[in-house]
Design a protein that fits this description.
Elements (H helix, E strand, L loop, with lengths): L9 E3 L5 E2 L6 H8 L6 E7 L4 H5 L1 H11 L3 E7 L9 E2 H4 L1 H15 L5 H7 L6 E2 L2 H13 L4 H13 L12 H7 L3 H8 L2 H17 L3 E2 L1 E5 L4 E6 L4 H12 L2
Parallel strand pairs: 3-4
Antiparallel strand pairs: 1-2, 1-7, 3-8, 5-6, 8-9
Helix pairs in contact: 3-12, 7-8, 7-11
Length: 248
């Protein structure tokens, strides 16, 4: 398998099972940025409890770094563990203990934290519930919209490296404060039904998209949508598609 092959590996929202560069021409990108064309939206379907999204972190960060001047990146929570799929980590995601995380590490270079693995291979007290982190992301999207992607990535780090329990709202405090939102304001909004409703709208948006898994990237213009990635995809492949769009 070449380093630029799209494996199609993703976290499947229906089954909860993991299935399977040239330097940018900055002058041309700058020209597009200064043109009359509207800034294009890149929709990133993700979930804070998606292991392959955790592995995708370095890719999406690089997309932001290289194309942030010409792309508005919107993060949409897909709802990987909701309703009947909520439960203790080793019950609803036994593939993790079966060392599926090793596949993510080998393919992406990311490392799962000792605190997370200690729980998985120990008491397994972590409860996988996508709703609390998705509500938290909706709160931050409203309070600090320019830090939307940054906080989304923080949530992945919080769960899969630092090993927080997603249902423990107090565990979110250091990440929220790092973003610049006061703890009291955050907790007030977390208990406001408005933000749960916003999170559920995002879940429905992903469901209606008909994509089976996450991470997924869709480039949206006024008149069309272009699928860039469905499942973990190397930056070089995404870059080739974005360059074909922006640098033509």
């Amino acid at each position: 398998m070449s380093n630029t092959e799209n494996t199609g590996i993703s976290c499947n929202a229906k089954t909860n099972i993991c299935s399977s560069v040239l330097k940018p021409d900055k002058q041309k990108i700058e020209a597009n940025k200064n043109s009359k064309l509207p800034k294009v939206k890149l929709v990133y379907y993700y979930d804070a409890l998606c292991g392959w999204c955790y592995g995708f972190s370095s890719v999406i960060k690089k997309v932001k770094q290289v194309y942030g001047a010409v792309l508005n990146i919107e993060v949409v929570s897909g709802g990987l563990f909701i309703n009947s799929k909520v439960g203790f980590v080793n019950k609803v995601a036994p593939h993790i203990k079966a060392r599926a995380y090793k596949s993510v590490e080998a393919r992406t270079g990311v490392k799962f934290g000792e605190s997370f693995l200690k729980d998985v291979f120990g008491t397994g007290k972590m409860v996988l519930n996508s709703l609390p982190p998705s509500i938290a992301l909706c709160v931050i999207k409203e309070a600090c919209p320019e830090k939307e992607l940054e906080f989304a990535e923080m949530l992945l780090q919080a769960v899969y490296f630092d090993g927080i329990n997603p249902i423990d709202l107090n565990a979110y405090t250091p990440y929220v404060e790092r973003i610049g939102v006061e703890k009291s304001l955050f907790f007030s909004k977390m208990n406001d039904s408005k933000y749960q409703a916003l999170a559920e709208i995002e879940f429905e948006k992903f469901k209606s998209s008909q994509f089976a898994g996450m991470p997924t990237l869709v480039l949206q213009t006024e008149d069309k949508s272009i699928l860039l990635a469905n499942g973990y995809t190397d930056f070089e492949i995404i870059k080739q598609q974005l360059d074909a769009f922006f640098l033509k």
